[in-house]
Design a protein that fits this description.
The chain has a single domain (3-81), classed as Non-ribosomal Peptide Synthetase Peptidyl Carrier Protein, Chain A (Orthogonal Bundle). The protein has three helices and no strands. The protein has helices at residues 3-17, 40-54, 69-81. Helix 1 packs across helix 2 (40-54) and helix 1 crosses helix 3 (69-81). The radius of gyration is 11 Å and the shape is globular.
């Protein structure tokens, strides 16, 4: 899966799971997870949705230092290559 595909799937997953309505086009690599309205509880739902969308399994703790959509895409890219 190439980076553009990862970002497109990630944006769609975030848009569908966001606690507040958002426009898919406003989600960039620099957008922070907090800016998207995710709190500690909704992030857990997002993690599950991401795992389902990408068909991978990881621990929520693996994402502790991830703040932006781009950082999350980097993480997913590494996981998908492993």
């Amino acid at each position: 899966m190439i980076r553009d595909e990862i970002l497109a799937t990630l944006r769609e997953t975030m848009e569908n799971g966001a606690p507040v309505p958002m426009d898919l086009d406003t989600i960039t690599e620099e957008t922070t997870i907090g800016e998207l309205g995710f709190d500690s509880l909704s992030v857990l739902d997002l993690i599950y949705d991401i795992q389902q969308a990408f068909g991978i399994d990881f621990e929520a703790q693996d994402l502790v230092n991830i703040n932006t959509v781009g950082e999350l895409a980097d993480f997913l890219e590494e996981e998908l290559q492993a």
